[in-house]
Design goal:
The complex is a heterodimer of chains A (167) and B (734). Chain A is an alpha+beta fold and 167 residues long. Chain A contains 6 helices and 5 strands, in the order ββαβββααααα. The two termini of chain A are 23 Å apart. The relative contact order of chain A is 0.17. Chain B has 734 residues and is α+β, with helices and mostly antiparallel strands. Chain B folds into 3 domains: 198 residues, Aldehyde Oxidoreductase, domain 4, CATH 3.30.365.10; 162 residues, 2-Layer Sandwich (Aldehyde Oxidoreductase, domain 4), CATH 3.30.365; 335 residues, Aldehyde Oxidoreductase, domain 4 (2-Layer Sandwich). In chain B, a hairpin with a 2-residue loop joins β24 and β25. The longest helix of chain B has 28 residues. At the A-B interface, α1, α2, α3, α4 and α5 of A face α6 and α17 of B. The complex binds FE2/S2 (inorganic) cluster (2 copies). The site of one FE2/S2 (inorganic) cluster has 12 residues of chain A, from loops.
Chain lengths: 167, 734
Amino acid sequence: MSLQLRVNRKIIPVDAAPDTPLLWVLREHLGLKGPKFGCGVGACGACTVIINGIATRSCITPASAAVGADVTTIEGLSADGTHPLQQAWQQLDVPQCGYCQAGQIMSAAALLQHTPHPTDEQINDAMDGNLCRCGTYARIREAIHKAAAAANSTQSGSSAFHKPAAT
Amino acid sequence: MQFTRRHFLKIGAVAGGGLAIALYDLPWSDIRPFAEVYAAGGLSPHAFVHVHPDNTVTIMSKDPEIGQGIRTSLPMIIADELDVDWSQVHVVQADLDQAIYGPQFAGGSMATPINWEPMNMVGATGRRLMILAAARRWGIPADSCTTSGGHVYDKAGNRSFTYGELAADCAKLPVPDASSISLKKPSEYRIIGEFTPGVDNPAITTGKPLFGIDVTVPGMLYAVVQKCPVFGGTVKHANLDAIRRMSGVRDAFVIAGDQHTNNPAIEPGIAVVADTWWQAQAARLSLNVDWDTTAASPTAPEQSTESFNQKAAELLPQQPSYNLRSYGDLESAFRAPSTRVIEADYAYPFLAHATLEPQNTAARYQDGKLEIWTNSQAPAGGRGQVAKTLGISESDITVHMIRAGGGFGRRLRNEYMVEAAWISRAVKAPVHVLWSREDDFTHDSYRPAGWHHLKAGIDAHGRLTAYSQHLVTFGDGKSVESSAGIGPNEFPAGRVPNYQIGYSTMPLFLRTGPLRAPGSNAYAFVGQSFLDEVAHAAGRDPVDFQLELLANTYDGGGDRYYLPERLADVLRQVAEESGWRKRKSGNGQGWGIAAYACHLGFCAQVAHVSVDSQNRVRVHETWSVTDVGSQIVNPSAARAQVEGATIEGMGHTFVAVTLKNGTAHPTNFPNYPLPRMHQTPKMNISFRITEYSPTGLGEPALPPIIPAITNAIFAATGKRIRTLPLTHSGFSLA
Ligand code: FES
Ligand code: FES
């Protein structure tokens, strides 16, 4: 069965059962390996993508539920790693194993889109669904603050973080 | 513990006119006995460094990258001694070939101690060759030349060559004698000791395929393996025909496997192979299996944490079945009228590794040869296991080492490698085996649970005079399960006048194995909590009490790698840095301290916690001081290891795997509450630089944080935590 998905600003037909979790459509049908499989039950955040501006666990989202929506994966955040969050992550050397980090960055991108100057508490709230087994939380928090500061110094508003194309 | 090593380096040309520097002898067997298994095979030449004509440098990273940052730190060492700029360097992951690269594994915090000097020598020999080649071209003595940033300069004039221009000449030069190689002074380092972000950060932050799970091979199928909920259980019957008819499914078949619960090469189960992983997984959820749950043992299905608790309670008050070390006259010391005796029982649960990337491996079996892409921490062991199980030669197996999403000791086991190889051969196609999270939780090699009885005697001056410890653990008679044994020199061995340590075993039909700081992650909790307890009973400050012990030597002391003065120094320093003497515990606020030596490192931690009226514990701030020798290779990765160890140690206070009817629980993260961002404390991290050879950091900072936290809870509430997880004592992590 064919589904029309809009992923990283491109409309893509996918031949998959409609109840296939979006995570596996992204990874196995579209070859987007950024979103990761960690638990399959919405409990770790490794699979986080942004759907219509909202950080979403793609492992528990049926592909059919994403039809007509804008899906952004880590691959769509910037083509070349120049997004302020990606820059901050690299400069502060946030990753340890790195496996959770695509999901962490996507949750952070959704946070900054709505809350360009988050407090520590707002960061904690937004990021609590993202497990980092390696314990990189302190650096993640610092990197979000750093990205927020960098984006605010170069652009006004929140559009630097995540700009889904108009449908 | 300064190591003396000889090095032999060999040079050869590589395609494209570059230079290859190779290392074929690593006399490192003096470091740790378990490493000696590698020494037997000997080591042979191969390239670590390739200098290209355009003056870029490829440096091979030899070890598995599991998040410890080794793919960055070992090449940093080579690059610094080679005297190139880090920006010239491109790091490439080596395949498994221990004859060429020396030991290739990630475990035991061993990469730094094993590789520090050899990697320095690889780089320095390269630099020496560049100088010799330039000196020859200019017709001047070698000592008239100097290097910097990938160039050789004539000290007298303003001429220079790039390394790239000299690479082809270097390849033809004889190997410089090791005695002619001089290493940099630490003050000359320009890369070592600098904050250096991981070389894979760009790929990680842009979502490039990088991890084991991301590997694809043309024509590859995906597989899941359903195993029996009771470890080692076998398949009696299953609805395989129905499964084979499901969407995308290519095959479904029984793997007979073996029932060696300690370390099965391949566990019994059912393989479901499909075009996509999701199809394999969806089909597996429709499996209907009749298991023989008694295959490992008739009593396996009856095993439970509950029954172990009962059995341990019977064994603990008795004499240990097996004595490990005793000296002095323990009984007289305990009976002396002036002696005050303190006794306590401690316990801790099974733990899961829960690497965020579930176990997986891709394999392609073709014409009797195997190619494997794995994120194993011990790929050589895995290759051996694959060869043995499939009955093929190790030389017919190529192993590519792929970045792992966490290791923590889980990937020292390699059964997923064997599964991938086995299934690929069976279905005659490349196969990627990927475990679900439920597979991962229920078929881990668990940190073994343990039960301890401790007894201490203190004299009228509040000094420790006698100490005994009885560990009840898992095993078969004298032999213990993996990571379930304790050593004869557990603290305070050699620091107290009368001492005894021993153990007793009970059978287990479940696999155990090393979890980050194996043994130490449990024994530090037990020993340092009990020491705090005894110090408190003696009316002594735990720092003074422990420092007094560390200054003693009885019965020849302890383990030769255990240098009490190093532990005393980190303990003193952390007390100073945390303001220990000025702390004001009580009223729900508490400070705890602990120190431990393991994996050649010495670490002391202080935790500040608060406990609210509902017994919710918040860890606000921690202070750690770690001594891993004379040089921190990459301060960023080093701090990251301490940050990670601190968070993981916090997690150890609160998570547990429980056995019920032979089955492990929980099966996924919701009931295994690992620390989250809001629980992250402020971490103050210091390294104490000493004169000893640099050693590793994967493990040493973890053990002491656990008792630092539990001692802090005692300080805050007066309630001693003797059993983990904290929920057992009515506490939770806020
Ligand atoms: S894989 Fe989706 S939340 Fe864990
Ligand atoms: S960096 Fe390893 S799980 Fe987050």
